[in-house]
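Final report, closing paragraph on structural work. Over the funding period we assembled a curated collection of sequence-structure pairs, and we close with a single example.
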Amino acid sequence: LYDSDMTTLAAGVLEFAPRFPLYSDGADKTRWVWLPDGATIDTSNPDYWIFPVGAKLWKEFNRDGVRVETRLTEKRPDGTWWRVAYQWREDQSDADAVPDGVQNASGTDHDIPSSNDCVTCHGATRGGVLGFSALQLEHDDTPTNLDDVAGLGWLSAAVTVPAIPGNAIETAALGYLHANCGTCHNPTGGLTRVDMDLRLRLETLTGAVTETPAYLTAVDQPISVTDAAAPGGNQRIASGEPNASAVYLRMHSRGELYSMPQLGTEVIDDAGSQAVYDWIDALP
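Its predicted structure, as stored:
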């Protein structure tokens, strides 16, 4: 990732930012990707890109002004992904692999996940990569967007991303749920107890908001898990009633059996939960 000074990026490493970021308790995050020379990403399935052998992606976490960890995922020759986090030394001279994770790392409240924890999220979708996709790169912001990646010749075929249906409130909520909940709550996520689909896929964006999987499987639908139900959450999403909506109540809590997400966060995301609250509140 870095040259010997541990601050200058190595040749060919590309910084990017997803359109809908994953919340990580307010940590500042920077992301990079690198492909071997001449390699391309198989985009025949535009929602689940297949990366070439040797591809590397990194995500670096800065918490309370401290550079705490850098995570690496690398595509291996057998098609699987190698994932590990590195904790930065106090003098920032280098970072050391911590495959078992670290609680409250480097004097902060930030927890570094174990390699097994990484698989829990990244293994829940086909392709294995979450933030570097057609949908997540479809924006006009810097440092890199979908057009930039296509211009580098990294894609096996061009991808066109439809607009997410709905107004700004609806788009913000659907995008947030996609990045923060849809990793597990999707048809291939392995949650057999809950048939709720919160992941945006390109073929689901061609109709109205009411035709999206999130709306069809969550709005005015009864909860299906009762042994750890959120108090007062009578439906997954109760139209016009955020405080009777299990999705909102779960994401707006921490430290309870019903709190969501179950990994990677100990602090309520006020901005994200407000976006979902506003959408539910506006539902007729």
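The longest helix spans residues 168-180. The two ends are 49 Å apart (CA to CA). We thank the funder for supporting this effort.
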